Amino acid sequence: MMYTKDNAQTIYQSEIKKYNDYKSMGLNLNMSRGKPAPDQLNISSDILDVLNSKSNLIGSVDYRNYGILDGIPEAKKLFSELCGVRESQIVVMGNSSLNIMYDMVQRGMQFGVGGEKPMNAQGKLKWLCPVPGYDRHFAVTELFGFELICVPMKEDGPDMDIVEELVKDPTVKGIWCVPKYSNPQGYVCSDEVVRRFARLKPAAKDFRIYWDNAYGVHFLDEDVPLLNLLEEAEKCGNEDMVYMFGSTSKISFAGAGIAYICCSENNVKWLTKLMSYQTIGHNKIDQYAHVLYFKDANGIRTHMKKLASLLKPKFDKVFEVLERSGKGLMDWTKPKGGYFISVDLPEGTAKRTVELAKEAGVIFTAAGATFPYKKDPKDSNVRIAPSFPPVNELETAMEVFCCCSKIAWAEKYL
Amino acid sequence: MMYTKDNAQTIYQSEIKKYNDYKSMGLNLNMSRGKPAPDQLNISSDILDVLNSKSNLIGSVDYRNYGILDGIPEAKKLFSELCGVRESQIVVMGNSSLNIMYDMVQRGMQFGVGGEKPMNAQGKLKWLCPVPGYDRHFAVTELFGFELICVPMKEDGPDMDIVEELVKDPTVKGIWCVPKYSNPQGYVCSDEVVRRFARLKPAAKDFRIYWDNAYGVHFLDEDVPLLNLLEEAEKCGNEDMVYMFGSTSKISFAGAGIAYICCSENNVKWLTKLMSYQTIGHNKIDQYAHVLYFKDANGIRTHMKKLASLLKPKFDKVFEVLERSGKGLMDWTKPKGGYFISVDLPEGTAKRTVELAKEAGVIFTAAGATFPYKKDPKDSNVRIAPSFPPVNELETAMEVFCCCSKIAWAEKYL
Predict the structure, then answer these.
(1) CB-based contact (8 Å) between A49 and chain B?
(2) A68 touches B at CB < 8 Å
(3) What is the pairing mode between strands B242-247 and B208-212?
């Protein structure tokens, strides 16, 4: 069946019948949140066994006591190895990379970046937001009053022609980027895109790249390599422009992991100076437990293979249903890792599709959430999060999604 | 021997001889940091046994996963019981109450408090600092550009006649206070002082009391009661003016505890709204481990008795040496709890005393550290931190201290 105006009535009638059947099932499914499923969390349970009351917790210092602002040496070693940076280029903190990113933006607002004036004192400023993207990124910079400028995502990363043009504006102070298995499309920045990021010559000296490598080792099958932005930036003397973030939120426990920032030694010095007013140090026992559990970067990669074996069937199931029931009507990405699949519905139907699904008991990420100000100009993009529900629920949820999308499409012609 | 000018030469000669003996001992002692000793930390070791890979971590939600911004219900219950507040009046976070306080000040600077303009946009502002006090408090508000106004501490708390006068100035936006076993004097606010705090009518609507109850259950022997400021403030409709802070840093592990803020429901609502941009939630597994270990507020109090049995002999040793070797020259406080003893040396001799001690291998908190801008106008106050060194080291360190103080005093007349 082709999705042409002539077929709209026929398609509507057939789908609304299915829809009513779904409604009568009393479904209660949630496809909105990029959170690990319990079976993924179970894989990390042994992390709770690596420390007990008999453990020696005296490393470089007594890890039970105060001290160590920048993270315990063992954790710096582990995550610097994982990220391919020097130990002098990393600060390991608590459980939330979002918290680190928020605080970095706030520090720029309050104290200024790179010796420039506090951003609070610089008038109206702008921030670049590759779209579709991560709603919590956009929300942070919206909160601080930045005008959010959309930059289209391409399969190899943000459109760098546009980025290079926009950073000529001295009021542009930063860009968000999830460089690998991006949220929501699952795209990976190509070497060329990473190098163009590294070579950027923004007009603003206090422009920073917020490189949120949230899914750096979150492959589903074969890993896709990502060039090291900090290293590339260093080659052009641009290393102060780069903040790279990561965490174990989707490696160990989503609510009880370890997060870190990688940046130049200059930036580490500036950051830890300001941090020294804020805290005496983050939880070193949590950091140490992670180190003892994973041992080294390869330990993390081996662990990720186990998680991938649980996630891949879920992604495959979503692809299968989209292939079966969405073809010809919608487009979707086929990520090789990460937590999301991005679906583009016919223009002007995303909100209605999500609304219909909700009425049938299936929650999807709100249409628009993947754009700044929650406004998708085409009302087309929906983020699918396959990780949490069991496979059998996924199948039903995605069938409901395709059914609702067809109804939303057909309604435009009726 | 009386400390009169006539005796200065004699005292100097006798003390300098002792001092040279100390120097030749090659001492390496540190009395500067208010951190728990290893034997205190050992008392909490079993907290590492309450959770393991077999534990059920599914409480109100799966505590391994994302979610719960304001702290797990069990932790809110535990600490609200300990603090005598409603569960709706507490937000439980990560390991550092300093971090919570810093962030609260920063939120006021950036977003404004109580609907008022951001403090960043209000010109030059002031903050009240009871002295002597806690250097990290003063450093936070100095960093944000407040003019720090000293308020004398009395045995029953800050001098409220002065506080009540100063808050008539609309540029005064806050006051630091460690209400119980204060740092460094160990004073406890009397009921009357707490009530005067509760009744304050500051000119600034965005004035806040930063009530850092860091030592709320840190008695050495009999506990001294402290009136509940939030409750008292509520009686006068003043509850939005109060932020109360606490943590388990000196209850469980100094580097891996749980911290919280107690405040009005209005303030909780405002705070969690802003927090929702910053994090998805703090480490719930750490919170849960604390709950399982302590069980209830009485569990914490019983635990504190064990810690007190280790701390009290240390305080007693310091008192003993001061009594023996400092009498007539210096004054000191005799706290019934907390982590510090405050010593007032003859005017103009604190810096020199600490310097002499350092040269003999004994580190004390820098003279001046207990005052804003690190400037003790009388150069007299030194904070003694007896918790970390073993008792035998304490005795030597305090003898060195008294010896150095006598030399510093005598030098003024030679």
Answers:
(1) yes
(2) yes
(3) parallel
**What's the full length of chain A, in residues?**
414
A396's enclosing H/E stretch is: helix A391-411
Q: How many CB atoms lie within 10 A of CB B222?
A: 8
Least CB-CB distance to A256: which of B95, B136, B285?
B285
For residues A325 and A323, what is the distance between their CA atoms, to the nearest angstrom? Answer: 6
> Helices A391-411 and A350-359, interaxial angle, to 10°?
130
Task: Show the low-confidence residues of chain B (pLDDT under 50).
Answer: none
Residue of A nearest to B110 (CA): A110
Q: Inter-chain contact A255–B67, Cβ cutoff 8 Å?
A: yes
Residues paired with A31 in a beta bridge: A364
Do residues B17 and B360 make contact, with C-beta atoms less than 8 angstroms apart? no
Contact residues, B window 266-285, toward A, CB-based 8 Å cutoff: 277-285
The residues facing B158 across adjacent strands are B153
Do B316 and B335 form a contact (C-beta atoms < 8 A)? Answer: no
| Shortest Cα–Cα distance, A343 to chain B (Å) | 24
Cα A301 from Cα A311, distance rounded (Å) = 15
What is the reported pTM? 0.97
Return the structure tokens found at B73. Answer: 């219900």
Query: What is the H or E stretch that residue B97 is in?
Result: helix B97-111
| Helix residue ranges per DSSP H, B118-243 | 135-143, 160-166, 191-198, 229-235
- Which one of B120, B140, B256 has the shortest CB-CB distance to A64? B256
> Which chain A residue's Cα is nearest to B52?
A48
Task: Write out chain B residues lying below 8 Å of A258, CB-based.
Answer: none
Domains, chain A, in order of start with CATH, read 5-31+305-411 (3.90.1150.10), 47-300 (3.40.640.10)
Q: How far is B28 from chain A (nearest CA, A)?
A: 17
Q: Strand A126-131: give its sheet, edge to edge.
A: A90-92, A259-262, A242-247, A208-212, A172-177, A126-131, A147-154, A157-158
- Looking at chain B, how many residues does it have? 414
HEC per residue, B208-233: EEEEECCCCCCECCCCCCCCCHHHHH
- What does the pLDDT profile of chain A (414 residues) look like in tens digits? 689 999 999 999 999 999 999 999 999 999 988 999 999 999 999 999 999 999 999 988 999 999 999 999 999 999 999 999 999 999 999 999 999 999 999 999 999 999 999 999 999 999 999 999 999 999 999 999 999 999 999 999 999 999 999 999 999 999 999 999 999 999 999 999 999 999 999 999 999 999 999 999 999 999 999 999 999 999 999 999 999 999 999 999 999 999 999 999 999 999 999 999 999 999 999 999 999 999 999 999 999 999 999 999 999 999 999 999 999 999 999 999 999 999 999 999 999 999 999 999 999 999 999 999 999 999 999 999 999 999 999 999 999 999 999 999 999 998
Residues 214-253 of B with CB under 8 A from A: 249, 253
End-to-end alpha carbon distance in chain B: 18
A339-362, pLDDT tens digit by residue?
A: 999 999 999 999 999 999 999 999
Establish if A51 touches chain B: CB-CB under 8 angstroms: yes
Write the pLDDT tens digit of every residue in A261-294.
999 999 999 999 999 999 999 999 999 999 999 9
**Closest chain A residue to B107 measured between Cα atoms?**
A106
**Which ipTM did the prediction report?**
0.97
